[in-house]
Design goal:
By secondary structure, this protein is mainly beta. The chain has two helices and eight strands, in the order H-E-E-E-E-H-E-E-E-E. Strands 1, 2, 3, 4, 5, 6, 7 and 8 form an eight-stranded antiparallel sheet that branches. 27% of the residues are buried.
Length: 135
């Protein structure tokens, strides 16, 4: 299932979720996950004060993902991929893509948490789950 949402609608999408989890990876391959509340600023996202480990990871590897878990049982999660730039104690994220996601086994769950174009026909998803690009 595909649910396309333009990145210009990212602020609306974020409004349908609570806090997110920012995942970064160090140059040595260690994953760090912290809880964040990003805000849309310009064409990107701003995360205030995620902590020193996150800032160190981004200094060596700017790739990141922010996961917003479903707000309801079997609901959709929002995943936002991007690159992060350290700005003092904050992180500025340039989103490169996003996806609403839930496994096919959760198809009995609620509809997407915000109005989006109608989903494509069942089976059209390239990911093998019930998901679709937000970008």
């Amino acid at each position: 299932m595909s649910i396309p949402v333009d990145l210009a609608d990212l602020e609306r999408a974020l409004g349908a979720f609570g806090s997110g989890h920012l995942a970064t990876v160090s140059e040595g391959g260690s994953v760090k996950i912290v809880t964040v509340d990003p805000v849309v600023e310009g064409e990107g996202l701003l995360v205030r004060g995620p902590g020193g480990g996150t800032l160190r990871n981004l200094a060596g590897n700017p790739a990141l993902t922010v996961l917003f878990p479903p707000t309801e049982r079997h609901g959709f999660a929002l995943l936002v991929d991007g690159t992060g730039a350290v700005d003092g104690e904050d992180v500025r994220i340039a989103p490169t893509g996003a996806v609403l996601h839930r496994p096919r086994a959760h198809a009995d769950g609620p509809p997407p948490p915000f109005e989006a174009p109608a989903p494509a026909a069942a089976g059209d998803s390239a990911c093998g789950h019930e998901c679709g690009p937000v970008a």
